[in-house]
Write a structure and sequence with these properties.
Length: 73
């Protein structure tokens, strides 16, 4: 059988825990989780910026933006 059984995975996990220790694995998990979280946040921010860049720019749109900014000032 060429696949991994549950025993292979269990033995591998025990060896990894013995080599690195639980505290290093815990810190590694936190670091990887933080990196994934930051990556997802940056992707959302980039998508928001791209949607603003993809809006059509017309003369009426520019005039409306100028009047809105002068009213807010």
């Amino acid at each position: 059988m060429a696949g991994l059984s549950i025993w292979h995975v269990l033995i591998f996990a025990i060896v990894v825990i013995l080599l690195f220790g639980t505290s290093k694995l815990k810190n590694l998990g936190k670091d990887v989780g933080g990196a994934v979280k930051d990556f997802k946040k940056s992707m959302r921010d980039e998508d928001a910026a791209n949607t603003q860049l993809n809006e059509p720019r017309t003369l009426e749109h520019e005039a409306q933006n100028k009047t809105n900014s002068s009213v807010q000032s």
